[in-house]
Task: structure prediction
Amino acid sequence: MADPDFQLDPEHLAALSHRAKRQIRQRMRATRQAYPSTAVAARSAKICERLLALPILAGAKAVASFAPLLERREVDLRPLDEALRHRGVALYYPFMDPTPTGYRTGFRKVERPDDLVPRQQPFAEPPPDAPEARRGDIDVVLVPALAVAADGHRVGYGMGYYDATLPDVVPPAISVVVAFDFQLLTELPHEAHDRACDWVVTDAREIDVRGGVPSDRR
Result:
């Protein structure tokens, strides 16, 4: 019979969580990579359609998006960028500025998609002199993921960018994980520093996580 008082120490739990996340990353990278680019484009278009229909984006004046890593079969939000600009929405994108001790992260305003350029990271970034977002400047943040659960927790590439950056803008900004429906898992390992997002949007559904109980609206 199991000892009811038995508990794993925090370091052991963290090690188990890290190992589980590493395995999930490997599996989801391989799964996503197996999809042809045409299927990725079609699923991405459906995600953009669902995002544009969301009430939280209907009234947004500023949205933080991300430049897709197409070779990694990430969700392609470029059509959404164009549609939001036609609505008069300001678009912000992530940046990572090197510092003597690591990186400084945040979001900068991008006037034109062509302004996004590769720097030191795999993803394209805004120019260093672009206006930087402060708390209250952004209404909605779109967050990439390798895997996501219905409770809003996600697994990314393991760099910790969004765990470090989201607290600077959320709240009042609303965070939305965007992923393909095959990336939606029943549950994911997470630790105290892992932030759950407010919404999950895939090519097949939208899930409002706020209030503690996910509401799946297809």
